[in-house]
Amino acid sequence: MSDLNSESTVYHQGANRSLVILYVHGSDSRDYLQRMVSCDLARISPQQGSRGTLLDGKGRIQAVFDLLQWNDGFLLVTGEQESATLKSRLESMVILEDVEIETDSHMWLHLHGDGSPGRMGDLGYTEAGTFLAATRTDTALLVFRPRFHPQGYDLLVTADHGEALASSLAELGEVATEELREQGRILLGLPKSGAEMGERTLPPEVGLGDAVAYDKGCYAGQEVLARIRTYGHVNREIRRLEFSAETDSTGPAVGDDLWSADGGDKPIGKITSVTSTPTGWAAIASLRYKFLEASDGAEASQKVVWNKGGDPELIGALKPVYSPQPQES
Question: In this predicted structure, what is the pLDDT of residue 329?
Answer without folding.
Answer: 36
